[in-house]
Automatic annotation (TrEMBL):
Fe cation 2 binds at E107, E167, E197, H200. One of its GO terms (cellular component) is cytosol. Homodimer. InterPro entries: Fatty_acid_desaturase-2, Ferritin-like_SF, RNR-like. This is Acyl-ACP desaturase. Keywords: Fatty acid biosynthesis, Fatty acid metabolism, Iron, Lipid biosynthesis, Lipid metabolism, Metal-binding, Oxidoreductase.
């Protein structure tokens, strides 16, 4: 087996692909303005300007919608960490640097738009929201950090493969959150955010595909590492596990969605189980990914049974589903595989 290519070599090899996909992204992207999707006429001053501070009864969103909206927002708030990660891994020169800046500019408006919506409509406590933002940004983020605090070795392939799955998962989470809000304005806003995330996913997916052609064994090692240790970027948010369970029970993002709508479509696009260019250790890792899919399928089935049992209990007693009651599937909900 030949030695792995260095990240510098890979950056150079992939730069024409990045430039091509960046130009395609710019041609496909449809500009939109966050302020167009905020119901400003619903807004009023808070206490400091002679108005009224937030009270729980002012929110028109369900508990699930509130949790999902806040989780999505504070995940977007960690943009400084995400920018630092891709800038360090991709560099700031040439087409790679142009993509880093363009991606950051587009992502930045997601947090702006979501916060404006939540504050103007008084959907959540703005004081708690600001405290949570400060906490999450202070904690930072690294895609190579698993739930035990360990770091797996990061490489260029680790970065672009991880964000392919993460962007797709984020797109779905935003879209389903918009529907859960039961508000046409929130639905329109999150549809715009989701469209951005979809184009970002396509960029990373196709650059990753080119990487698989250049160095298949090396890419497979990273793919195996990423999926075996996968977590959503919001895992740094306080009480993430409890919130993930609530979001899953609410149908916004659950193990079935993760497997059927995120993991499998990407693996099929890359023809992971059809390729014949994996050898040695990489071939064994591809086989292990097949086992991982079976594990995820079992976890999906267990979660669905547990979820239905708890929902039935809630219907009988009026008692809400808790994270403790679904603790057996919480590991799946956080997408941690250890």
């Amino acid at each position: 087996m030949s030695a792995d290519l260095t990240d510098l070599h890979l950056l150079r090899e992939l730069e024409p692909v990045v430039e091509k996909n960046l130009n395609r992204h710019l041609s496909m992207h449809k500009n939109w303005n966050p302020h167009d999707y905020i119901p400003w006429s619903d807004g009023k001053n808070y206490y400091a300007l002679g108005g009224q501070d937030w009270e729980p009864g002012q929110s028109k969103l369900s508990d699930v919608a509130q949790v999902a909206m806040v989780q999505n927002l504070v995940t977007e708030d960690n943009l400084p960490s995400y920018h630092r990660e891709i800038a360090m891994n991709f560099g700031m020169d040439g087409a790679w640097g142009q993509w880093v800046n363009r991606w950051t500019a587009e992502e930045n408006r997601h947090g702006i738009a979501l916060r404006d919506y939540l504050v103007v409509t008084r959907a959540v406590d703005p004081v708690e929201l600001e405290l949570l933002r400060l906490e999450v940004v202070n904690r930072g983020f690294s895609p190579g950090q698993n739930h035990q605090g360990d770091l797996f070795a990061e490489s260029l392939f680790d970065s672009i493969l991880y964000v392919t799955f993460q962007e797709l998962a984020t797109r779905i989470s935003h879209r389903n959150t918009g529907k859960a809000c039961n508000d046409p304005i929130a639905d329109q806003l999150l549809a715009k955010v989701s469209a951005d995330e979809n184009l970002h996913m396509i960029f990373y997916r196709d650059v990753s595909e080119a990487g698989l052609e250049i160095a298949p064994n090396q890419a497979m090692k990273s793919l195996h590492r990423v999926l075996r240790n996968f977590q959503m970027p919001g895992f740094q948010v306080p009480e993430f596990r409890r919130k993930a369970v609530m979001i899953a029970v609410g149908g916004v993002y659950d193990p079935r969605i993760h497997l059927d709508d995120v993991v499998m479509p990407v693996l099929k696009k890359w023809r992971i189980f059809e390729r014949d260019d994996f050898t040695g250790e990489a071939a064994k890792m591809r086989d292990d990914l097949a086992l991982l899919i079976k594990e995820l399928e079992v976890a999906c089935e267990k979660f669905e049974v547990s979820k239905q049992r708890q929902l039935d209990r809630e219907a009988r007693t009026g008692k809400r589903v808790t994270a403790r009651e679904l603790h057996t599937t919480a590991g799946t909900l956080t997408m941690s595989r250890r």
